[in-house]
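Usage example:
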Amino acid sequence: MRIDHGLRRLAPAALGALAVLATAPHASAQSALINNQARATGQARAAAAPDDAGLVGAWPKIGFETVGAVEYAGMSADSGRDRPGSIDLRFDSTALVEFADGVQLDALFQYKSKQPRPTTDANAALFSNQGAGRRNGGRFKELYFRNGDWRYGKFVQDFGRAYANLPGPFATDLVEEPEDGYEPAEMLGVEKLHVYDNENGGWSQISFAAFMIDRTPLHETFPYNEGRIRYKDGGVGNTRLPENLMVTWDVLNKPVGSWAQMNYQASVIRWGKAYGAERGEWWTTLGADISIPLTGTVEDTLRNRYSQINLYVEGARRDNFDGVAGRTRQFLSGSAEYLNGPWVFDLTTTQRWTSDRLTGKEHDALYTASIGYSLPSDTVAALSVASERVGGRDGVYAGLRITQTLTSCNRCLTKGRPF
Amino acid sequence: MSYDLALLRRVVSTWGRVVATAVLGVGLAAAGHGPAGAGPLDTLFGSPTNLPASAAVDPLVNPPEFRSENGQLSVTLEARPQRVKLGKFEISAVTYNGVYGGPVLRVKPGDVLRVRLVNHLEQSTNIHFHGLAVTPQGHGDNSMHMVLPGETWDYEVPIPKDHPPGIYWYHTHAHQFAERQLMGGLSGTLIVEGFQDEVPATRPLRERLFALKEFQPDPKGDLARVTKAYNVDIKTINGQLMPRIDIQPGETQLWRLSDQTANTYFRLSLQGHRFTVVGRDSRPLPRPEVVREVMFGPSERVDVLVTGGAAGSYKLVSETTSTGPAGDVFPAQNMALLVSAAGAAAPAALQPVAMVQGAVKPIPGDRIDAERLVAFSEDPVTGLFFINHATFDHERVDVKVPLGSIEEWTLRNASDELHLFHIHQVPFQVVNINGKPVPFDGLVDTVSVPIHGEMKIRLAFTDPTIVGRFMFHCHILEHEDKGMMAQIEVYDPKVGPMPDGPMAGMDHAHMDMPAPGATSGSTPHAD
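Running the assembly step on the lines above writes:
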């Protein structure tokens, strides 16, 4: 079965369900009752249609936000070709349509202006995510429908957090993307989240997901179109059916002592056997971070003098890496971040070990240091240096990145006037 | 390892200029975070709301006032869109009775407050009487009830005879619309008289009201689609931009500040002056505090004494404030100009400032009936804000408390920005912050919870007047509208709580009664 055929069959049913949910009596029902009672007492004269009583014009709501980054960076390699300074653009645009409480459509469109590196470049793997090396362009990284605790569609699975949490522009180079790192991106599937009632020990949740690689037109990119993925292309997660299964347990903001909070996560993915692979992979991860306020009274915060230290560590392991039995890839990432008002200083490292029965062990490593400053206009300027060793090649990167958040619409009402 | 250092130097040299530019910008921005006045970055970009001292021409005046007579105050408030002039700006606001600063309601303990709300908007709206310990049921301070477009609703709020006097306020509490409606202007000051009797030194002083509001217009003067402080942000006092405040050298005035903004914190300073804080959230402080800056957040009220300095002009400045790494930065703005000049009669000397004994008492902690957790958290992906991992639901009662209980609640901030806890109908006492005991400093109805921190508060659910369902929430209204609100029911233990589900049962008794005979026509009094 091809997934795009399946989606076509599902589409009318999904749209129907969406329409039903959008018009379902929910929170407005209670207001309608009160208002009807009020009218019965002659208290008020009737006005709006009863079906949206109480929340006239409240739904749907839309949101649109773009995080754009301009980066000027260059790399000096210890041997082979350098990369002279160049300007790259990246933006992540999110769109959100809320039909009712807990019923929404989310999209994330990501664009990276990376140019392909020549395959003859021995340093092509150095800083592969931040510099050139991969065709990327723009694509829908996420497009999913959320109904309460369920998500359906294309989204990045909740496995590990290094690709999102490591501070600094270059720090995620070795962990991003599913091929070489451990970011389960480009996956289509379904997820069920369960949040535990008791929050005394922090927000505790467990999620279950089943998914497979995106073989739909959503994977196509602009302007460097790689085309759609086919089953016979192989690759992690490229199974016939959504038979890749994940369980993730998160604890968020667990109080530690009298004034600190930590998060931790444990997760496992059982990947199905992809076309041409010997085995399916197993991914496991365990990570935690702690935020320790240093000067954090309300008065300090209002004076823009809030300061804190955040310490973060995460380990991950891929068994049967690349579908090869006995081959493993392990990751260990850590960071220390000091935030003081608008200033942020951070040090990070990611270590990666790849073991193979035939080729032995390979060690890659990345170290970064960054300094950043936040402007009131949601602008962040960050200066970073990084040293990376990949496949026996070494390089030093330096770069300046300006990141701007542009919010075009923040849960905007779509009906009527602003008031 | 050996690197091509020449190439690295070329790279560094090229973007050295870029870095220098960035550093310059950063330096200017950093200067903008300094004290004493609007930051250079604000003026560098020509913030049009930050007016110079020379613009302070019009004197500060109190908005029109409605006073109770013969034990009652009956007033009609018509909520409608309105074009409003704020200095050189013309904005599309939404007002009660055309008054952007908000009509002032002045009552006495024991009065009955009757408000007829007429909704001329295209959205639902309602009114919450913030801080009053009155009935939340039926036609009382019932924030659950939404008044539909074109409808009217009569509020009837008996003020108990022993109700604490002070500065309160009333405002729209229409969930999903509250932030924008309040930012549009739907609020006003509510005074329960008698504060000056509790702090006798303030009796002879001139009382000035400061209703602080904000509006973020788009180029056409409509409320911006995205209400963020980095847009044009017009902060006003009583609907006036950069007014003049007159005082005599040595004269002391009682300034009654209320933050009637949706999201904005204030850090007010007055050049060459100190403030003496004598009250917070309607209640006198047991010990007055002398401060250089007065800090307060959305919905909080502060009573301060200001004594005029030597003849001259002094800027009242709202300094830059931040609500944390994931929060907002509110730019500095010159708010008003204090002009100190000798008058015809010499001002009376200020008597020693002290609260009448017993005006505010701590809540006894020898018997705590229950302890609860209120955790504020948020999800940047969905843009939702939570209390105890849930968004607001009209049909769900999150906490049920038997009347007569004294409880301690732990407020936890599980996020990277400030949250501002507020509970309707019930004042409370802050017991500790991050485990450190806080000496009794009066009762409040709103408090900011530090980032990644916890605080313990004590609440007495002992007043039979408050039986019914009402809310507690974050009073940063962006957060409230996005879900950070929960419902509590205080019930008579002899009767038991109401059935779960819609609140209709609570309203029955009142709905069966004839609607209160609200009449309009109370005459506004000039200040």
